[in-house]
Design brief:
Length: about 230
């Protein structure tokens, strides 16, 4: 069995058992435990209730616009009509194209992490859904990646729009910032994220929607959120 590193053994000593701790205190602990040289991601993980009183299990897939951004740097591609490519470049897109970009996608050349598409180009990109879908790159109006407002779509993704979706067991998670963020900014992002998820609760689900919440960093340990 591989022995835990000295750094990890030190972090383990900060673990909290059988004690409720407020979000702000946990965020400060998570930041303190982020002792690696890189700017670790601060992540929130939730367990939500999927059981509806009627019908099948509920599935949540949406976007949350974090007020202070996520700190993640996305390489954004815009697929648009040829007469809108200049607009996309001015909006700050890293990759811009029309039919030429579709050819690259068809050839499996994905040098971007997010793909924005104008409505007029959706019919052309649709047949590549089997390739784009598994990579999480298929444009979707509900996720802000199909839009006529190219400038806003690029800005949202560049500044703090994060996509969330649950797995079959009701788990979902997201980054809410980086260890370089102040505790106050992380707390603001956290509260906004949790409230946004709670607003997605359908009327067909009874009782608590969010069952458990955990906070951690990329290389840290997980803390269960108790009372605020």
């Amino acid at each position: 069995m591989k022995k835990a590193s000295k750094r990890y053994q030190v972090i383990l000593k900060t673990a909290i058992k059988d004690k409720k701790v407020g979000v702000k205190d946990i965020l400060e602990l998570v930041k303190k435990n982020s002792t690696t040289k890189f700017d670790e991601s601060i992540d929130v993980s939730l367990k939500i209730n999927l059981k509806q009183s009627k019908g099948g299990d509920f599935n949540l897939r949406t976007v949350v616009n974090l007020p202070n951004g996520s700190g993640k740097k996305n390489k954004v591609a815009v697929l648009c009509e040829s007469d809108k490519t200049e607009e996309a470049k001015k909006a700050g897109a890293d990759v811009v194209g029309s039919d030429d970009l579709i050819e690259k996608i068809a050839a499996g050349k994905f040098d971007f992490t997010k793909l924005i598409c104008t409505p007029a180009m959706m019919s052309k990109i649709g047949k590549h859904g089997k390739v784009l879908g598994p990579k999480g790159l298929m444009p979707n109006p509900k996720l802000g990646t199909v839009s006529t407002d190219i400038k806003k779509a690029v800005k949202d993704i560049k500044t703090g729009l994060v996509e969330i979706r649950n797995d079959k067991d009701g788990n979902l998670g997201s980054s809410i910032g980086r260890k370089s963020f102040s505790t106050e900014k992380l707390l603001e992002n956290y509260n906004h994220f949790i409230e946004s998820v709670k607003k997605e609760k359908p009327d067909t689900i009874k009782g608590e929607f969010v069952k458990n919440i955990f906070l951690t960093s990329t290389m840290g340990i997980s803390f269960k959120v108790g009372a605020k």
